[in-house]
# Entry
Amino acid sequence: MEKALLLYSGGLDTSVMISWLQEKLSLSVSTLTLDVGNTDLNAIAAKAESLGAYPVFVHDAKDQFADRFIAKSIMSNGNYEGYPLSTALARPLMAEEAVHYAHKIGAKYIVHGSTGRGNDQVRFEVSIKAFDPSIEVLAPVREWNMMRSDEIEYAKTHGIPVKLDGKYSIDENIWGRSVEGPDIEDIGKGLPEDVYEWVVPPWKAEKNVEITLAFDGGIPTEMNGEKMKLSDLIMKLNALAGSAGIGLIDHVENRVVGLKSHEVYECPAAAVITHAHRYLESLILNRNEAEVKMMLDWQFSKFVYGGLWHDPVMNAINAAEAEFNRDITGEIRMKLFGGHIFNEGAWGSTFIYNRDLINYSSSKFDQRVSKGFIEVYGNATVHSHNRKTAVDQEMAGSYFDL
# Structure
């Protein structure tokens, strides 16, 4: 019997697939569940086994995710159209591990539960094929045009235990939580308050949180004086920042497949860390570095969102981002309150921001040199503008001569 490895979340789609793959395609189904944050591994594994999957694999990937993927996103200020990348960032890791486990059991197929409307189908399949083009990828929801009502009916008739009262479709990892659903899709309505889980609604957030983050080479390594690994720092900061109303983003985005979607993201730690990282950059990088890095940041985010983590261009982008981040070292203290982040001070030995040079009471900068600078700097604009004015006047005169 041919084998299939299913990326298993424990939800309706993938739970139905275990039985569906066995019944419709006569496949032996194994499952892989990656813990990239907030996943009840034991319960999910037990459910997969009860549905006939064997072997069932669970993999704690929080540190892998933080150190290999989130760290690069922090250095690149990973942000797509206004929100920190989270779901998109985890998919290439899941694809890598799926190929690894498929090889381990000799599976011909890797199966995922993505729909034909979303981005994840692209992210999974491009990465899987990049690692092993010989593996066939199955996407039953897309290929069999499965509707939720069909899946629910199938689950009922086959005795598959699934939660049928779920109001939202949720994906979460330590870097963020994304929420979709009918009440969110109706753009004519405000957000239902029950979408908030990690973040206290800002109008209810009475907690005043003060934190100090220390960065070394672009990565946060300490919080409030305590050294900790990145995954632990992120999870701790999620709770602290979320309690102060930080990190909920109501967002309409342009998907890879050309559709627009309305989604909600909760990303307290990502919002604070990205804010702090950008602020340190503003104190350390010069103007040329900052301009080039902004272009690279956008390219990084575009490729990650579009499922191209394993394109060779990412090696070049990540190498350049690492070079830019070499000196992004220092501390920043912030106050978090009512959904807002307030800077309370920053310190570092690599800052090129110099108070003595910018201070209007300081004589360290000789203002007289600016006159000559302006004359040279403006040459191109002044001369070309004068040329254009003369040509326009000549053309206008020729017109009236007619």
The first strand starts at residue 3 and ends at 7. The longest helix spans residues 379-401. The chain has a mean pLDDT of 92. The radius of gyration is 26 Å.
